[in-house]
Amino acid sequence: MKVDLGDLNGFVAVARAGGFRDAARTGGVSASSLSEAVRRLETQLGVRLLNRTTRSVVPTEAGQRLLERLTPALSEVEAALDVVSHTHDRPAGTLKLNAPVSAARLVLPAIVPPFLAAYPDIRLEVIAEESFVDVVAAGCDAGIRYDERLEQDMIAVPIGPRLQRAAVGASPAYLDKYGRPEHPRDLLNHRYLRGRFPSGATPTWKFERDGEVVQVEPTGPLIVSIGGATDLLVDAAIAGTGIVALFEDWLRPHFNSGALEPVLEPWWQQFSGPFLYYPGRRLVPAPLRAFIDFIKATAARP
Predict the structure, then answer these.
(1) 99, 223, 266, 302: least buried by Cβ within 10 Å?
(2) Spatial distance between the Cα atoms of 97 and 127, rounded to a whole number of angstroms
(3) Alpha-carbon separation of residue 1 from 4, 5, 6, 35, 90 (angstroms)
(4) Which fold has domain 86-160+273-300?
(5) Are 244 and 254 spatial neighbours (Cβ–Cβ below 8 Å)?
(6) How far apart are CA 171 and CA 157, in angstroms?
(7) What are the φ and ψ backbone dihedral angles of 181, each rounded to 5 degrees?
(8) Which residues make beta-bridge pairs with 207?
């Protein structure tokens, strides 16, 4: 069956935007032309692809199946066109990355400004979330995750610091009141401030020193969703509510200012830094190829 590529793109745009007007506004086309494209596609396929109401437009079951198959296929088409239409020296287009909030806060700020300065024709879009994501199905070119959360069958490239530490801290006032732990087991007498992943899992606190590994199951007065609410943990710790465990780089400014005091620093555990990962396909979009080359060149510098 021969189907117009423009009609397929129109359907994908409307399904992603959740409406004809929003899709038209984003794509710079008219809502009526998108409506006609979807109508032609539905007529040709003989099946309804979108359920339309006055408030929303959502894919039908058949439309959702088509959307899941089309997203990676259209990404391949865009990659092929990028290879042909843009030179290696001046790539252009949109690069869409999916990253955890920690990477968006601690890793990307040192990379994004010089990258965009070096490639002024590239538009970067960063989606920060903690959920496990199929980057291809989500319409992203690549993702950033730590090795234990990398998707299978992906190419992984180191990005950012190769070693990081999990730090623990509390306000001096809190430690004056509840005491300063000398061993991880002393934490059993303290109040924890902890995060929870979207999956519902709550990370354990792990400590290591001279070959001894101690794992603590935290309980305490405050739980927040890891990601957008993480700063609330830090603010609560500064206010003296309890002890917080987080990336060292996240807490370091507060250690330096004295708002927080390091706790059990000799026991802080190291872990490997994050990776940029992307599908192992033959054609890599020009903006993504430029980004990969940039982070490799940055890592190679002394």
Answers:
(1) 302
(2) 6
(3) 10, 12, 15, 21, 37
(4) D-Maltodextrin-Binding Protein; domain 2 (3.40.190)
(5) no
(6) 37
(7) -60, 140
(8) 214
Strand pairing category for 275-279 and 222-225: unpaired
Architecture of domain 163-271: 3-Layer(aba) Sandwich (3.40)
Q: Show the tokens assigned to 121.
A: 């024709």
Token representation of residue 46:
């003989």
In terms of Cα–Cα distance, which of 172, 228, 169, 177 is closest to 193?
Answer: 169
Q: Quick one: the chain helix, strand, coil %, rounded to 5?
A: 45, 25, 35
Question: pLDDT tens digits for 181-209?
Answer: 999 999 988 999 999 988 888 888 999 99
Instruction: Measure the CA dihedral 232/234/240/242, to 10°.
Output: 90
Mean pLDDT of 108-132: 92
Query: Domain 5-69 belongs to what topology?
Result: Arc Repressor Mutant, subunit A (1.10.10)
Q: How far is CA 188 from CA 191, 205, 208, 214, in A?
A: 8, 12, 17, 12
pLDDT tens-place string over residues 134-147: 777 778 899 998 87
Asked if residue 39 lies in contact with residue 4, where contact means CB atoms within 8 angstroms, the answer is no
Average pLDDT over residues 26-38: 83
